[in-house]
From TrEMBL:
Membrane-spanning ranges: none
One GO CC term, this protein: Golgi stack
Protein location: Cytoplasm
Major location category of this protein: cytoplasm
Function according to Swiss-Prot or TrEMBL: Required for vesicle-mediated transport. Catalyzes the fusion of transport vesicles within the Golgi cisternae. Is also required for transport from the endoplasmic reticulum to the Golgi stack. Seems to function as a fusion protein required for the delivery of cargo proteins to all compartments of the Golgi stack independent of vesicle origin.
GO biological process, one term: intra-Golgi vesicle-mediated transport
Keywords, ordered alphabetically: ATP-binding, Cytoplasm, ER-Golgi transport, Hydrolase, Nucleotide-binding, Protein transport, Repeat, Transport
Residues of the full protein shown: 286 to 571 of 829
Organism: Knufia peltigerae
Location of the AAA+ ATPase domain: 53-201
A GO MF label: ATP binding
Originating gene: SEC18
Family: Belongs to the AAA ATPase family.
Protein name, as recorded: Vesicular-fusion protein SEC18
Length: 286
C-alpha cells in the first residue's frame, strides 16, 4: 500500500537514509507534508479540493545548518530536473534591467515547458541562496542604494504571481535573515511555507558526526576510542558545517602524527595504516 502512485513525483531510487543530512528528520517531514504532499495526491484530488500546489518555500536559520543540503536533496527526491541554483548577490547587476533579466531567465525553461506540456511538464526547482541580498523590504535600498533590489523583488513577485496557472515550479529561498525579506514575498501563493533550520541538538549533532565519520568507520580508519556520543555532548552550539570542520581538523592532526618531518617520498608508507583517534579529536576541539 506504500507503493508510490503512478503519477508519483518521488524519484523511485530515492532513499531517505542516503541523504547525508543529520538531525533534520522533523524539518524534512514538515517540508514534505506542507509543500509536496499535494503533488503526490491521487489524480484529480487537487482539482476536487480546488487547491493549488505550493510554489515556494523559505528555509531560514543560522549559517551552515544544512539549508543548501536540504534544498538539493529535495531536488533529488522529487522527480525534478537538476535544480537551478542562484545566489542573491550574483543576481544584482549594476546595468539597468540586467538583474530583472537574470530573474526572467531563471523561470524561462519552466514557463516554456508548461506552455508545451501543461500539467504533464516535469517539476522545475529553483534554489535562491542569500535571498535577503536582493529581497530586502522594498524601499530599504537593497542593492547598494541603486534601487536595483526593489525592481528585483517586483520581478520575482511578477514571476511567482504569473505562474499562478503553472504547476511545475518550486522556488526554494534561503536566508540567514528572515526579518530582512520583503513581506510581500512571504504571502500565500508565493514563498508560503516558512521553515526554520536551527542549530542541531545533541541527538542531531551525533547524527551529523556519524555521517561525516561514516567512511572512516567503514574503512576502519576511525580508532575505536573515538566516542561520537561524547563528542556530540561537548559540541553545543556547533552547526553542521562546524561539525564537518571538526572531523576534517581531527583528520589533519592524525595525518600530522603519522608523517615524519622531512619525508616526502615516504609519505604513502607513513599514512598507509593511519588512524584518527580520540587525541586527534581533542586537539581539533581545542
Ligand atoms: P549558509 O547559510 O552558510 O549557506 P547552509 O545552511 O546552506 O549555510 P550548508 O551549505 O547546507 O549550510 O552546509 C554546509 C556543509 O556543512 C554541508 O555541505 C555539510 O557538509 C555540513 N552540514 C551542515 N548541516 C548538516 C547536516 N544537518 N547534516 C550533515 N551535514 C551538514
Amino acid at each position: 500500500s506504500r507503493r508510490p502512485a503512478a503519477n508519483s513525483i518521488i524519484a523511485p531510487d530515492f532513499k531517505f537514509e542516503d541523504m547525508g543530512i543529520g538531525g533534520l528528520d522533523k524539518e524534512f517531514a514538515t517540508i514534505f507534508r506542507r509543500a509536496f504532499a499535494s503533488r503526490v495526491f491521487p489524480p484529480g484530488l487537487v482539482e476536487k479540493l480546488g487547491i493549488q500546489h505550493v510554489k515556494g518555500i523559505l528555509l531560514y536559520g543560522p549559517p551552515g545548518t544544512g539549508k543548501t543540503l536540504i534544498a538539493r536533496q529535495i531536488g533529488k527526491m522529487l522527480n525534478a530536473r537538476e535544480p537551478k541554483v542562484i545566489n542573491g548577490p550574483e543576481v544584482l547587476n549594476k546595468f539597468v534591467g540586467q538583474s530583472e533579466e537574470n530573474i526572467r531567465k531563471l523561470f524561462a525553461d519552466a514557463e516554456k515547458e508548461y506552455k508545451e506540456k501543461g500539467d504533464e511538464s516535469g517539476l522545475h526547482i529553483i534554489i535562491f541562496d542569500e535571498l535577503d541580498a536582493v529581497c530586502k523590504q522594498r524601499g530599504s535600498g537593497a542593492g547598494g542604494g541603486t534601487g536595483v533590489g526593489d525592481s528585483v523583488v517586483n520581478q520575482l513577485l511578477a514571476k511567482l504571481d504569473g505562474v499562478d496557472q503553472l504547476n511545475n515550479i518550486l522556488l526554494i529561498g534561503m536566508t540567514n535573515r528572515k526579518d530582512m525579506i520583503d513581506d510581500a514575498l512571504l504571502r500565500p501563493g508565493r514563498l508560503e511555507v516558512h521553515l526554520e533550520i536551527a542549530l542541531p541538538d545533541e541527538h542531531g549533532r551525533a547524527q551529523i558526526l556519524k555521517i561525516h565519520t561514516h567512511r572512516m568507520q567503514q574503512n576502519k580508519v576511525l580508532d575505536r576510542d573515538v566516542d561520537i556520543l561524547e563528542l556530540a555532548h561537548r559540541t553545543k552550539n556547533f552547526s553542521g558545517a562546524e561539525l564537518n570542520g571538526l572531523v576534517k581538523a581531527a583528520t589533519s592532526f592524525a595525518f600530522n602524527r603519522h608523517i615524519k618531518v622531512g619525508t616526502v617520498a615516504g609519505i604513502s608508507d607513513d599514512v598507509a595504516d593511519m588512524k584518527v583517534n580520540k587525541t586527534d579529536f581533542e586537539n581539533a576541539l581545542e
